[in-house]
Specification:
The complex is a heterodimer of chains A (103) and B (555).
Chain A lengths: L7 E7 L5 E4 L5 E2 L11 H12 L5 E12 L2 E4 L2 H8 L8 H4 L5
Antiparallel strand pairs in A: 1-2, 1-4, 2-3, 4-5
Chain B lengths: L5 H23 L4 H10 L2 E3 L4 E6 L4 E3 H14 L3 E4 L4 E4 L7 H9 L17 E2 L14 H11 L14 E4 L13 E7 L5 E7 L11 E8 L3 H15 L10 H8 L1 H19 L2 H12 L11 H9 L1 H10 E3 L5 E6 L10 E3 H14 L3 E4 L5 E7 L3 H10 L14 E2 L14 H14 L2 H4 L4 E4 L13 E8 L2 E8 L11 E2 L4 E2 H18 L7 H8 L1 H8 L1 H7 L1
Parallel strand pairs in B: 6-7, 7-8, 16-17, 17-18
Antiparallel strand pairs in B: 1-2, 2-5, 3-14, 4-5, 4-13, 8-9, 9-10, 11-12, 12-15, 14-15, 18-19, 19-20, 19-21
Helix pairs in contact in B: 1-2, 1-4, 3-4, 3-12, 5-9, 6-8, 7-8, 10-11, 14-16, 16-18
The chains are: A alpha+beta (103), B alpha+beta (555).
The complex binds iron/sulfur cluster.
InterPro entries (chain B): NIR_SIR_4Fe-4S, NiRdtase/SiRdtase_haem-b_fer, Nit/Sulf_reduc_fer-like_dom_sf, NO2/SO3_Rdtase_4Fe4S_dom, NO2/SO3_Rdtase_4Fe4S_sf
Organism (chain B): Shimia abyssi
Protein name (chain B): Sulfite reductase (NADPH) hemoprotein beta-component
């Protein structure tokens, strides 16, 4: 039996800055995971992934990442995505230095 | 030090001009990422977890002060004020913006530095003994031959699209400080019975998923034959190496599958063809290169300042005992500057620290610096009478940590904090181990102990050859750390043995503490190092300290 689809967000790196971005419900890109669209339908997720990946002059390496609904929008389920949305743990660099809300 | 001639400068300028055009076309959307990726990788530009990463080669680990100053400038102007020195004698910038990279490369070119072939399936930055040209135990300075290999391998048309990357290391000393046996190919300068200098060539070493110790391909290759011999070796592998499976594509697998004798026979056969095409020009070039590496004019002076500071100042004495190595010139010493202050990120230096080190090299060190694969910075030629002044300047810049070769002198790869391939973090584990042993104040009592940490099976942190190796893995979505014991990075190279089940992130530091404190109980006396005790006793007693519950259950 195929595995049940778990909720996902669409994420990538921005072409110019290289930093982590997420696709919103309005099909725009945000730097903040909590503003990302949490996709619960597999077909919808796959279609939007294809569209997102076409934006070659904006984004690099688009993929679906597991996420769950939290109090303030989607939250990561895996520690890799936790680091991507926060920044490294040895310096206060990356997203954490820009937007305290995403920490 | 090697200075670029007009050809080198023009080659690099043209290459940088091309890359600037490629970046512009990527930004305009004219190139897709699939088209651009191989081009940026050929120029050392990666895309990591949070940002782009630019990897700049420091050929055979040698830098002038002007070059170090330029590395500082890049850190300050286009990055976040620091750089990360790696186990391959490269420096990595973790936060460049795509549009700035061409300017960064042009700035590097002003001081003969580049990022070419720091990625991709090519011959990578040639690494060397970081004490080259200075060590008391050295037969010959291996850097001229390393520079020759750099020039030969740069843009070599036959070796731009190989099955996998190819790493070469060189050393001219008796003790191996370049982890020769963990390289695809290693060159070790030796003297034969007739008293001639030549090269022992090793092949098929490598860490990663399937760690292998390099084997002797030839015990003596003469000076004139070396470059064609290396070309023949890479060529044989490029032909018969596996391209069906990237995990079996490195030459270590080719050597393992065909056997060293078969590889040797193929290399000899290929060499006979290749040798004819060389025509001796490489030797003319080598002669020229050798002149660039003439030893500095060492001075003959008393060392009284050193001796009195050594007697009077215990902090200086401790630093001198730990961070100095024997120089071949009388009255001189090799200084290793630790960029591993307890609790800091191994291998990171701020722009200010880089400038301090550059100034020290300019003022006291014949303008030379080295970067070690152990992620420290070296002043290779220092007269002992200047050491008290150097120590004072290092202290002001927080660069005076006396821990070289000790438990807190940890190699750690970037791991999950930066690296897109990582399965777990390495940096915070290193930071916490160093901090813990600093608190215990046992470091100098423990003595020589190498801990090496990788954040995934690729083993950039050399964990296989650490006396204690730590490998970070992702076990069902949680960080988990596997310990190996008994690895050895010297010419007696050995791959560490797995101790048992892994440890969770919050268990790994206490486990290392139990293990090291256990060693203090097990050793015969302070002269028996951790590795020596492990070799004498084997795994069992160390395991008992790592897994006390298992021990209790079995009892
Ligand atoms: S060992 Fe793995 S995690 Fe560490 S730098 Fe290499 S690829 Fe990245």
């Amino acid at each position: 039996m195929p595995r049940a689809f778990t909720p996902k967000v669409i994420t990538a790196n921005a072409l110019l800055e290289g930093d982590v971005i997420y696709l919103t419900a309005q099909d725009t890109w945000t730097r903040d995971l909590s503003e990302a669209a949490l996709l619960t339908d597999e077909a919808d997720a796959q279609l939007r992934l294809l569209d997102a990946a076409k934006q070659v002059d904006l984004v690099v390496g688009v993929y679906l990442a597991d996420a769950v609904a939290g109090e303030n929008g989607p939250e990561p389920t895996h520690f890799r995505e936790e680091f991507r949305r926060t920044g490294p743990s040895n310096y206060f660099h990356g997203k954490q230095e820009l937007s305290p809300s995403s920490v | 030090m090697y200075q670029y001639n007009d050809f080198d400068a023009a080659f690099l300028a043209e290459r940088n001009r091309q890359f600037r055009g490629q970046v512009n076309r990527r930004i305009s959307g004219a190139l897709t990422e699939d088209e651009f990726k191989p081009l940026r990788l050929m120029n050392g530009l990666y895309l990591q977890l949070h940002a782009y990463m630019l990897r700049v080669a420091i050929p055979y680990g040698t830098l002038s002060s002007a070059q170090m100053d330029k590395l500082a400038l890049l850190a300050e102007k286009w990055d976040k004020g620091y750089g990360h020195f790696t186990t391959r004698q490269n420096i990595q910038y973790n936060w460049p913006k795509l549009a700035d990279v061409p300017d960064m490369l042009d700035a590097l070119a002003e001081v003969n530095l580049h990022a070419i072939q720091t990625s991709g399936n090519t011959i990578r930055n040639v690494t060397a003994d970081h004490f080259a040209g200075a060590a008391a135990d050295e037969l010959v300075d291996p850097r001229p031959i390393a520079e020759l290999i750099r020039q030969w391998s740069t843009d070599h048309p036959e070796f731009q699209f190989m099955g996998r990357k190819f790493k070469i290391a060189v050393s001219g000393a008796e003790n191996d400080r370049a982890v020769l046996k963990a390289h695809d190919l290693a060159v070790r300068m030796v003297k034969n019975d007739a008293g001639e200098i030549g090269y022992q060539v090793l092949v098929g070493g490598g860490l990663g998923r399937t760690p292998m110790i390099g084997k002797v391909l030839s015990d003596f290759v003469s000076k004139e034959d070396l470059l064609p011999y290396i070309e023949a070796t890479v060529s044989v592998w490029n032909q018969i190496g596996r391209r069906d499976n990237k995990y079996k594509a490195r030459i270590k697998t080719t050597v393992h599958e065909h056997g060293i004798d078969d590889i040797r026979a193929r290399v000899e056969e290929r060499f006979a063809l290749v040798k004819k095409t060389f025509g001796g020009y490489d030797q003319v070039l080598l002669k020229e290169i050798e002149e660039h590496f003439a030893a500095p004019a060492f001075r003959n002076a008393p060392t009284t300042e050193f001796d009195s500071a050594y007697d009077a100042n215990p902090a200086f004495r401790s630093w001198a005992d730990t961070n100095l190595s024997d120089h071949r010139a009388p009255g001189y010493a090799i200084v290793t500057i630790s960029i591993k202050k307890h609790g800091d990120t191994p291998g990171d230096a701020t722009a200010d620290q880089m400038r301090v080190m550059a100034d020290l090299a300019r003022q006291y060190g014949h303008d030379e610096l080295r970067i070690s694969h152990e992620q420290n910075v070296i002043l290779p030629h220092v007269h002992k009478s200047d050491l008290p002044a150097i120590y004072a300047a290092l202290r002001d810049a927080d660069l005076h940590t006396a821990n070289i070769g000790l438990v807190s002198d940890i190699i750690a790869c970037p791991g999950m904090d930066y690296c897109a391939l990582a399965t777990a973090r390495s940096i915070p584990v290193a930071q916490q181990i160093a901090t813990r042993f600093d608190e215990l104040k046992l470091e100098h009592d423990i003595g020589h102990l190498q801990i090496k940490i990788s954040g995934c099976i690729n083993a950039c942190g050399h964990h296989h050859v650490g006396h204690i190796g730590i490998l970070g893995l992702d076990r069902a979505g949680v960080e988990n750390y596997q310990i190996t014991l008994g690895g050895d990075a010297t010419f007696d190279a050995a791959i560490g043995q797995r101790a048992g089940p892994g440890f969770a992130y919050d268990e790994i530091v206490p486990a290392i503490e139990r293990l090291v404190l256990g060693y203090l109980e097990l050793r015969t006396d302070a002269s028996e190092t951790f590795l020596a005790a492990y070799k004498r006793l084997g795994m069992a007693p160390f395991k008992a300290y790592l897994y006390p519950e298992a021990q209790a259950n079995a009892a």
